[in-house]
Fold each of these.
Amino acid sequence: MNLRPDQKLIAEWIKPGSRVLDLGCGDGALLAQLQSTLGVTGFGIEIEPHNILECIKRGINVIHSDLDQGLSDFDADSFDYVVMTQTLQAMRFPARVLKDMLRVGREGIVTFPNMGHWHARLQFMLGRMPTTRALPMSWYETPNLHLCTIKDFEDLCRVENFDIIDRTAVDASHQRGALMRLRPSLFGEIALFRVRQLVRY
């Protein structure tokens, strides 16, 4: 099973035998790989029926649910990791979703497109809503509601008392380069963060 490079980076952050909840799990490819290579257990949450069918075919425990409705079905600290890849920006209440992630999981792993990328900045300067390799859809077609920059996300973490354990940035092909390591806010097209709640309730 082939994983995208960003999914391989996520797998590096997860310890073998962990309990994992994958929010917006798509076709279940990441969770299936984590189960087969790291022996993790857990669930995926997905809203699209065709993706749920693919998860079932892969043998993934999947729950049909709308993430904006919260994770009230899960108790605190039910999981070691809660993963959400390329979904945060489509949430109606992203801060609420992040807090719920870090209630049910000891750590959260989040990826999202970086609106601070130089190409997006240039288009803003020219008076246009950006379309980039990481954000290819026009403003009137995109499902994205709350786009942000890397610095915006870091500000949210400070406000909500989230501890950033690790972070990295990749391009739209999910590859890392020297410029992205040097100036991730300017050259990273997709951001990856590993976070936890500083104060546990």
Amino acid sequence: MHPMLNTAIKAARRAGTIINRASLDLERLQVARKGPKDYVTEVDRAAEEAIIEVLSTAYPSHTFLGEENGQVAAADGSQEEAPEFQWVIDPIDGTTNFIHGLPLYAISIALMHRGQVTQAVVYDPSSNELFTASRGSGAFLNDRRIRVSGQRRYHDALLAAHLGNAAMNGNSPFTDMLDESAAVRRLGSTVLALAYVAAGRLDGFCGVGLKPWDLAAGGLLVLEAGGLVSDFDGEQLWMKTGRVVAATPKIFPQMLGYLNG
């Protein structure tokens, strides 16, 4: 296992301990709103700080991009306009689920080296499922190699989506894509949806309005599990645009076909 991936796993597990402890007494949580339907708790902040502490101790020259703290400079004080190594972190993807006691949320940690994601950890602390990937070395669930599903028939495909209420209610260009599949799920956690595509539990995912911390780790998992990922035009700008399609090799072009008429 790559040493940087091993350190990221250590950081994810430490954050998972914080989250699991808090999940035992949700009534005491202090919840704030960052925006409409966008919540944050002191657990999000504590988990992110724990992750950064572990990673910055091991790699003081690395920078961070986190959902709660934004850009965080390197611990050694070095400054780079385009940092060689940057960790992209979402301490709890699925905070709304978490505060309701719904165990569909995960910790996401990805390492970007010169702008390319090279290491990925997605950890579900409620189920103790650990998804990992290193570029060029495959994707794993609790040390067992995983692959995307072999689904070929679009009408039998189970998808997940993060498209907003209008899209899910049939008032969008996504209508045919969703209606023609077997079923669509809204998990409330993009990183878990992408991890489930990588593990073959879902056949595809489509999302809009997403951030780098929603996509970085999960995107690498899908790619290393044999799947395909792109923006809606089939290009590799999904980390920048926040518009993403991820699916098995057979379902992926069919999803793009629906999106592009």
Amino acid sequence: MTEMSFFQAVLLGLVQGLTEFIPISSTAHLRIVPALLGWSDPGAAFSAVIQLGTLAAVFAYFWADILRLGRAALGSLVSPQWRAHPDARLAWGIAAGNVPIVVLGLAFKDTIETDFRSLGLIAAMLALVALALAWAEWRGEGEGAIGGLGLKSMLVIGCFQALALIPGASRSGSTILGGLLLGLRRADAARFSFLLGIPAIFGSGLYQLPKLLQGASADGFPVTNLQLAALGVGLLAAAVSGYASIAFLLRFLNTHTTGVFIVYRLMLAAVVAGLWWLGWVS
């Protein structure tokens, strides 16, 4: 873990929380913001671990849904009656939907942590997913709800979630895109995106946590107590801002399209591509 001040940790935590659930790519912002401020890249490990703060926000916001789905999943293991329950099907569908991101994440681990963090690639993915969202919006909002999703549909959305392995794609943006293309209402697509992301965020954070604690910097020394404290403050900032962004997005998508996020992504892509091409950021 590179040396990081409390200010940097708080700022990056706020950036993570505000951008994790809004479809503008938190990983891209965690790469772009330090570059613009002249800070070193916090790295893929920090980007994954700081997501545990936003995972806490998901648990806080959706605790009733999570308890219900967990009870149904456990019940389905011992009772035939539970196996036909919609909550059990949704719970196991969420588990299956995370298979693509796990398999591809492990297969391309080294590339994700190095080549995929190029600002040129980030700019391209910001633009590509924005254009795909624009096309989905042009097709019109569907009427589908989460309860109507079958296993095949959840696997398809899980494949869209795997696009988030490339910074700039956005996990929420990719999964919301998948949900819209399958005919979900915008708010339902966002809600499913949050629930689907729980295993992926948890697994990614835990996988990268040992690397971060053992020291991913060039000197290879373990992190200090001060660095751990800074990480803790960053996680708290991510949790608080993440909770606020979940509440905002669910209300927003009940009455609005994703158009404002599409425009933002395209503008950010143009700025990042220009700065990267000019060599002003790297």
Amino acid sequence: MIDLRHLKYFMVLAEELHFGRAAEKLFISQPPLSRQIKQLEELLGVPLFIRNNKKVELTRFGSFLKAEGEKIFTEMLQLEKNIQLMKVNDEGTVRIGYVGAVMFSVFKSIFVQLKSAFPKLQFVLNELNNESQIDGLRRNMLDIGFIRGPLDVNDLSYYTIEQSSFSIIISANHELANKESIALCDLATEPFIQFSKICAPPLHKSIDNIFTNENIEPLVVHETSQFSALVRLVESGFGYSIVPTNLEQGFDIGVKYFDIPNCKEKTEIGMIHNSKYKTMLLDNIIDRIRSM
């Protein structure tokens, strides 16, 4: 059976591809290192290195063992991290990304409940668009993200938290503001304020579908990455827009919301995380959020 000392010596030599440098890095002399590598090769029954006077190279068996060894040492580091997290129970830091509009829907409730359930936990909050959150999760710069969905990415885990329909918003001073209902065709020739495609591609696609279904080509005059700016532009009379209906909870000053008749499009807020970097503490937090 391979022991960790054999594997550690192999991994250092596989990285350095030089017996002298590897031995120095391991704080041993070359003969013991050579003996350990020979023992490992005899144990496995295959050559791991090609040795000559000029260089040391990995065989195909050695390349395979190096790749698998990296996984083993990564899992060992994660195991140690999880043990430490168990020791401190609910102490630690969780890095959370979120799209701005989440603050006006489910996130506030989730955050309050997390603070109550994990009183010693430190939260680092970052307002980021979808793309930045996905990148942060892949690079282990974030632990959890709250994004505009739906989203389908093979390397990340995604859960729907909240769904919403869409509404038309116009200025409270608009000539149609006093009507009980309006249709999208009533505004077809008016300026349209668009939410940035880069910030939330699924949201942008759903709004495009709404216009396509109505056979309307919107007259886009401005694009913004912030719902607060979008609503203010509409409030000031620069144009109308289409937004998730649940935004009315946070952005209802100076604008009027109207349901879109027969609208089948939905938008959603989802929680996203990278299972590759999960810890026991993070598992507990994710389970708590899903139970909410």
